[in-house]
Amino acid sequence: MKSFIDRIFKKRKHDAEQIEENKEILSEQIETSIKERVAQNKINMEEVEKEIYKKPGHYFADCNCFKCVKWRNQNAK
């Protein structure tokens, strides 16, 4: 009976250790995937900033539509 109980406790201890190892591996994988996504988003943001907007088709000096605002902001940089 003692050997049976010892096996059960050893198995539980072993399972707990494996769970901890799995948690560590999973956390590392999550961190790396987050870092990769952040790097990809930085690249995407640079591409968006490089877009050149055409001059809007209307010619109002005081227009504040989104097309005019984008066009003015790109020229302000």
What does this structure look like?
The protein is an all-alpha fold and 77 residues long. It has one domain (2-76). The chain is 77% helix and 0% strand. The protein has two helices and no strands. The protein has helices at 2-49, 66-76. It starts with a helix and ends with a helix. The model has no long low-confidence stretch (mean pLDDT 83).
Gross morphology is rod-shaped
Q: What Rg, in angstroms, do the CA atoms define? A: 29 Å
Q: Helix and strand string, N-terminal first?
A: HH
**Biggest beta-sheet profile:** none
Number of domains: 1
The proportion of residues in beta strands is under 5%
Mean pLDDT: 83
Counting DSSP E segments of at least 2 residues, the number of strands comes to 0
Number of contiguous helices = 2
| Structure classification | mainly alpha
* Helix coverage percent: over 70%
First-residue to last-residue Cα separation: 80 Å
User: Could you name the ranges where pLDDT drops below 50 across 5 or more consecutive residues?
Assistant: none
Task: Give a summary of the structure in a few sentences.
Helix content is 77%, strand content 0%. It has 77 residues and is mainly α.
Primary descriptors:
77 residues, mainly alpha, 2 helices, 77% helix, 0% strand, rod-shaped
Write the layout of secondary structure elements.
Elements: H1 2-49, H2 66-76
